[in-house]
Structures are given as C-alpha cells and as structure tokens.
C-alpha cells in the first residue's frame, strides 16, 4: 500500500431498476477484499436507490438500499449501476440531485448503461465513455457529441465508465492500483481468482473468429460487411463483389464454415440488432424495422416472430 492513500475513499452506488447484478458485484467485491487485505477501511460505500426502497436487478434479485438518492452528499464518487432501459429506473426529477452532487465536487462512475443517465442529466462530458457494446449504437445516435469507445473502461477526471459485466472488476482494480499500488491491486485480483487486470483498451467483444468459430478470413470479411450495413442491407451480388468472390463461392464458404447461407446469416445479424433495440430502448417497432433494413413494420414483425417465437410488440411488453 502506498502512503499517499491513507484516507478512506468513499465510493457509493446508485442502483437503478433492472441494473446488472454481475457488474455491481464485480465493482463492490474488490473494495471489500481490499479492506480485508489492508486490515482497515480503505474504502467505504453505501447503496442508494431513487426512493430508498429495495431495487430489483435484471435477474429479479432484489437488493436492499441504505438510503434514498435525496440523502446523497459530496464529496466522493457515485457509481450508477444500470441495465436495460435505464431511463425507466430514474425519474428526471432526480437529475437535479445528481447535478447538485457534481457542483459540490462529487465524481461519477457508470456501469453498463449508467452513462445514459448521466448524459440525460447533462453530466457525461464530452467523453470518451465506455458503454456495453449492445447499447453503444443507440447511444452514439442519441448523443453524437459524446465520444464513445469500444474499450472495457475509461477513467476520466470527473466521470469513469465501464462496459459492465466483469469489466467493472478491472475498472475497480485499476482504481485500487492507482491509489494503493500495483502489487496491492494484484493481490486483490488473486483473491478474486482473476489472473490479471485487463487494460482499459482491451476490446469488449470476442474477436469475430472466436465468436463465429471460424478462422476463414474471407468469411469474416463478408460478415464484417454485413455488420456494417444493417440499415441498407447489401444483396448477395454486392457482398460477393466486395469480397472478390462469385456468389457461388461465397455461398459454399458460408455453408462449409458457418452452416448457413450468406443471406440467412445476414438476416440473423439484422434480427439480433433489432431484438436489442426492442429490449433495451424505447424505439418503436417501425424504427427498429427501418434501422435493420426492413421495408415495413408488418414484414419485420412476421420475420421476427418466425425467428423468436413472439412478435416485437409482445417482447416489448415483457420485462427486460
């Protein structure tokens, strides 16, 4: 432990309905372990909810809050833990509390989609910020002036962010390393059976070859074209032409390496993106359809139902 950090650091958590339990526990457990290894309270924390009542995570697990958000005081750091549709979990009336906290010298952290709430409150700054890769496209469209990175986490002067999941563990370990030293942070990491502290610039998603279980560079290049052209899908001739293939060659490669046709895979990529829009945002069905290359909401709904066994509207009505 370094002599520079002999005080107790206050890192509180705001739990928003539907928050990611994985991200929350990945963030708080390193603090607990650090206190145990140091033999004293290097960190202290409280759990806030908008109204002080228990909050349900996306898994349905309910966590008891210590205090309502109105009791928040600066200085210190408030980490906002969110998940699907974060705007539904924190009424706009609470944004004034966050702004007051910032004016009084408070800092922010944001896990998963927590940065969306800071952006809505005008507290996200200019970035760069990290957000879960599923939520990044809509965030970029809604707040084009805030730079978004694909990195696991970012640490800024006033706002630190991470993509959620186990990236919250790396973010907190990095913070511990900066205040307590790298050897101490490594000791905390070992206690959590975490073999290394991942650097911030590591990518969130698996490399495409691992994700799709193929090393064929031509197939991966075509898939990259598909993922870059969702709103205006390319036909098979255009895909093959850009990849330097004939349509027949491309179809054979997809059959051999992915077990499907190029357009079958393309349709699946588009539908997965649409599903995420339906589940994680308030985008209308027609907006999701047009954003993924469908000519009408009815055609989109039929294709969606065949793929997922329910209509987009029915999925929207179910809890996230």
Number of DSSP strands? 12
Report the C-alpha radius of gyration, rounded.
22 Å
Largest sheet: number of strands, sense, barrel closure: 8 strands, mixed
What is the share of helical residues? Answer: 40-55%
Identify the overall geometry.
globular
Query: SSE string, helix = H, strand = E?
Result: EHEEEEEEHEHEHEEEHHHHHHHHHH
Q: What's the architecture of the largest domain in CATH terms?
A: 3-Layer(aba) Sandwich
Instruction: Figure out the total of helices.
Output: 14
Which CATH class of the largest domain? Alpha Beta
Structural class comes to: alpha/beta
Domain unit count:
2
CATH superfamily of the largest domain: Class I glutamine amidotransferase (GATase) domain
Termini separation comes to: 42 Å
The proportion of residues in beta strands is 5-15%
Compute the average pLDDT: 92
Q: pLDDT below 50 for ≥5 consecutive residues: which ranges?
A: 1-5
